[in-house]
Amino acid sequence: MIQTQLRVNNRTGLHARPAKLFTAEAKKFTCNIYIEKNGDKTVTYNAKSIFSVLSMGADKGTVLTVYANGTDEEEAIKALSELADGNFGETEESI
Amino acid sequence: MKTFRGVTVSQGFAIGRIYKKEAERIEDFEQFASNTQLELERLSTARKDSLDQLEVMRQEAIATVGEDSAEIFEAHQSFLEDDCFFETIEDAIRENGYSAPFAVEQAGDNFISSLGQVKDQYIAERVADIRDIFQNLLRNLTSQGARKTFEIPEHTILVAKELTPSDTMNLDLRKVDAFITETGGKNSHVAIIARAAGKVALVGVLDVFDNAENGEEAAVDGETGELYLSPDASTLNSCKDKYDGEDGRKKKLLELIGKPAETPDGHRVELFANIATPEDAELAMENDAMGVGLFRTEFVFINRSDYPSEEEQFERYRDAALALKGKTLIIRTLDVGGDKTVPYFGIPQEENPFLGYRAIRICLDRKELFQTQLRAILRASAYGKIKIMFPMISGVDELRGAKKAVREAMESLEAQGIGFDKTVAVGTMIEVPSAAVLADFLAEECDFFSIGTNDLVQYSLAADRGNANVASLYSPFHPAVLRLIGHVVACAHARNIPVGVCGESAADAKMIPLLLGLGVDELSVAPAAVLECKQSVRGMSFEKMRLLTEKAMKLGTAAELEAFLAREITI
């Protein structure tokens, strides 16, 4: 199992379209992918579930710890990190 | 007179009568069920039905209010495709012996209350959308039937505690003059729909539902965010003044009805509408479209469990032709595959559906399917001015194959003595770059072109705009796309055939001068966008459009082009 930390930097947070993109990306991999929000280890969220990701309520500035466990875990972490680095496809001016 | 205040999320003014949209009541259901297997099957069927209905609503939304407003239904689809979530519902059925509707309702309530903990405006605005998903599932589970449309009178001021996306698709938007809701925000679906339809909308109007009465006279002032119930004479007058004066933009648009789609220096453009159903054809006519440049026939095929018969198809095509009263109706043959899936077609999952088995490729392969549709279209051609258009043509072979199929359909009809228009025109959609490059050859063998910019852009730039990492590469203003369009027009005009554009670009006020400057003869846009499009056409001389295009074609990047157009074109 590997893990990484991502920061939600886009203005609207991990909502709606960004959340959809995030789960769609996660679903491309066979490994299990779980998320903790702001270091809170009591609740984990399933990266492949749009319901789960939305209920996390990750605003701008939220730090996500992403855990991946499975054969393609490295690719998964890499892909999700890139998505976060690219602000989930949102530019600053888009609402 | 009673005054209520809310937040204006779509500008405008309205005077009309109240119609209260009651919240949907779901029939009672049992909490427990003895046959677990049966409940799991019910859940699975309801989920599938909901997905199918969403596809229909998505297509309707595309047709009536445009692609952006349809996005919400795509989002809904992604919720229903969430296996993890449905597994928790299935577990509740298995472990607790719950009935399917109870398990769904509970999962929905839990999820919505967990969203309630999220202190975020955007999420708060999504609650109506989420509720909509569960309501639709429950409707399907309680056999209340899929959708219930409701009838409203003209000049309705629609009042609701909450309006779901489905609600907005289940009423005749044309009859609504204002939307008033107690909940919601500027990103709520009702706000998006209202802006797209150009109607005033107030959200966050507290306690209005219980205070308003059905049929009561009311006035809405988008400027102040106020709703007046049974307004007194002076309030009514001041609203009327504002309605007449401030609402000039819309009135100005309406004044364009009956006026030609013509530049100030007399260059005429064919201004058509895109439709998905015969009912849309009426909407197109009301908005003064000169015809239909794209009839998406997918709509006839989706949301059903088996192929539509020739007779069923014929009736739909004929109804559209009749609604147009002799005006041109360009029917695009079936364009499924890619992102448009129809379960009963049994098309296997593909690694890369946009480069896969779709549109004309399926039709040329499944001859019977194609013959049925072509016969239906040809039979309808006896009732109006129908033209046939083939999607996703990539080269001359496919065009010849499609034309051969048309000839076969004609021969079979002739043999049976069934009437049709023997001079029916056939056209090629230019959306694959190879077709654009070979436009000279294609122009030799068909009667018109229609450029589908959405696909042409994504194929030319090899960029899927739904993919966040590359979406910024997707731009209709890319010089490569404009050169392709210019080449297509030149090839077509050299052989005296006309060129239309039926993608989203045709409705873009910054794109219109370029398209016309490049020589495009016809624009086809959503019915609600026809008049605005006409305004753009009438707003600039053809000479200026050509000069502008000439300069624009010297720019080497999409960003430079967009910056240039932003300077030159003020909207």
Task: Describe the 3D structure.
With 95 residues, chain A is an alpha+beta fold. Chain A has a single domain (2-89), classed as 2-Layer Sandwich (Histidine-containing Protein, Chain: A), CATH 3.30.1340.10. Helix content of chain A is 34%, strand content 27%. Chain A has a 4-stranded antiparallel beta sheet, covered by helices on one side. In chain A, helix 1 (16-27) packs antiparallel against helix 3 (73-85). The model of chain A has no long low-confidence stretch (mean pLDDT 86). By secondary structure, chain B is α/β, with parallel strands linked by helices. Chain B folds into 3 domains: 2-22 and 149-254, Glucose Oxidase, domain 1 (3-Layer(bba) Sandwich), CATH 3.50.30.10; 36-141, Enzyme I, Chain A, domain 2 (Orthogonal Bundle), CATH 1.10.274.10; 261-568, Phosphoenolpyruvate-binding domains (TIM Barrel, Alpha-Beta Barrel), CATH 3.20.20.60. Helices cover 48% and strands 14% of the residues of chain B. Chain B contains 24 helices and 16 strands. In chain B, the strands form 2 sheets. Chain B has an 8-stranded mixed beta sheet. In chain B, strands 9-10-11-12-13-14-15-16 form an 8-stranded parallel beta barrel, surrounded by 6 helices. The longest helix of chain B has 30 residues, at 36-65. At the A-B interface, helix 1 and helix 2 of A face helix 2, helix 3, helix 4 and helix 5 of B.
